[in-house]
Here is the input.
Amino acid sequence: MPTRSQLAVIHIAKKALALTEEHYRAALGRFGVESSKDLTGQQAEELIGLFRHWGWDPRPSDNKPTRIKRFRPASDKAKYINKIIKMLSIIGKLGREHNFLAYADGMARQMFFRDQKNVTLFVEHCTIPQLIKIIQALEMQAARLKDEAR
Here is the structure.
C-alpha cells in the first residue's frame, strides 16, 4: 500500500501533467490496478518515475506563493506598524494571511531602499522616522481616495 505522501505526489503529478482520466487510468492499468490506493509502495514509486519520464518535474514551481516569515517588531515600533495596518485596511490595500503588509513593504522599498534589489525587506526593518513617513504617505493616499469618492 502506498504512503499518503506517495499518493499526494501521484495526484500532484497527475494534475501538473494535465492527464485526462483515460490516460491516468491507462497508466494505473500498467500495474494491474484501477486506483492508486491499490498500488504497492514499490509500484507507487515506479508510477512516480513514469510521470517523471513523461516530463513531470517534482520541484516546486516559482509562481507558487511561499510563506513569508515575518518577525515581531520591536515594542517601540509596534504602535507604528499597527497604525500602518489600520491605514492599509482603510485604503483597501491590506493583503491576506501571512502577506498582509506586502503593500507597505513595497512602499518602504520604494521610499527608502531602492538600491537594494535582491534583499528581502519588510516594513519592520524601517526606523521610526521612516515608519512615520510611510504613515503620512498612507494618510495622503486615503485623503485622495476620499476626495475621489465624492
